[in-house]
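Student: I would love a firmer grasp of how sequence relates to backbone shape in proteins. Thank you; the sequence and its tokens follow:
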Amino acid sequence: MKKLSAILAFGLLAGAMDANAAPYFWTDWSGSDLDTGAGFQGQGTITTGTATINVTYTNARGVGFYQSSGGTDYYTGGAGSTSPYTSTQVDNRPTGTDIIALQFAGSQTLQFSEAIANPVFAFVSLNGNGYAFDQDFEILSLGGVDGNACGYWGCGGASRVVVPLSGGGFEYQLNSNNVGGSEPHGVIRFLGTFSTLTWRSSTNEFWNGFTVGVQGTAVEVCTENPTAPGCDGNNNNNVPEPATLGLLGLGLAGVGFARKRKAASV
């Protein structure tokens, strides 16, 4: 019988490697739906200190709405250290109003044009839904927890649940737990270096939304700290080998969110 290993968000996992909050670079989503069929594909860019990363989001079932400019800022609900999206690890909330609002159960993927390090996933109104990722994560912050302000639609707790899969491996779930409210808003982080991130929404709930940010490219982070997660060869996320990262880094150095009654604001 499958055993579920759950860690409540009140334990808010923190990366031991962090002494101070780091600035994060958030996705600037642009344009409109690029999928000419029933699905959805959106593109954006992340601009770091030395690179521009193209981000592609794909969902075969489509989305609730896509807000790539203007509209409501669903990342409000406190500023600075009180924001649901900042923590001792992340010092800046998502910039602008860009958000992808989800509606359907099913799988979806984020693809990065080059390997990135320690990506963070900001979520809005995870009520009546849950996400199941293919990579492990830690919960960094939640609205109404540890002194954080509530999110746009209210407060609510969430849990990280690890589920063994019948064919081997694990699924890492982020689920609303209705502790302190039913409207989780917050940020989770994936430690390591990644080129893709895949997850599934568990229900057809309208709506819950997200955006994604990174600490930097794998080259930037691993060059500065070769022993950081993902840079030491201990994880396998489809990125260059550490030696290759190191050489490339040297080369670069040399070159100088009341409830869903929500009206979609697009």
Q: What stands out?
A: The chain is about 10% helix and 35% strand. The radius of gyration is 18 Å. The longest helix spans residues 242-254. The longest strand covers residues 106-117.
